[in-house]
Amino acid sequence: MKILKRTNGTGTIYDTENIAYSMPSDLKPGTDKSLHLSHKSTDKNFLLQFFPVNHPVFILFEQSYYYDLTQHDGPAKHAAQ
Question: DSSP of 27-71, one letter per residue?
């Protein structure tokens, strides 16, 4: 699953299947689903299933928003993959 993390106007894409993967992204949340709508636990507990607690996905966690890019449409989807 590709996850977009937005913090202070900047974005980074992470991949739950490859925890070493990260890519800066200028994607703006649009029709993307907020991560908390794609699972039944808190975002942090969900992310801890895939990433160690010291992973960059958790930096500034409280100031960040997370989005599920699984359903992302448009040209930016291909850049995110």
Answer: ---SSPEEGGGSSSS-HHHHHHTTS-TTSGGGTTGGGEEEEE-TT
Residue 12 belongs to some domain of the structure:
yes
CB 23 within 8 A of CB 80: yes
Give me the domain span that covers residue 53. Answer: 2-75
In a domain, residue 30? The reply is yes
- Report pLDDT digits (tens) over 17-40: 999 999 999 887 665 678 877 777
How many domains are contained in the chain?
1
pTM above 0.85, yes or no: no
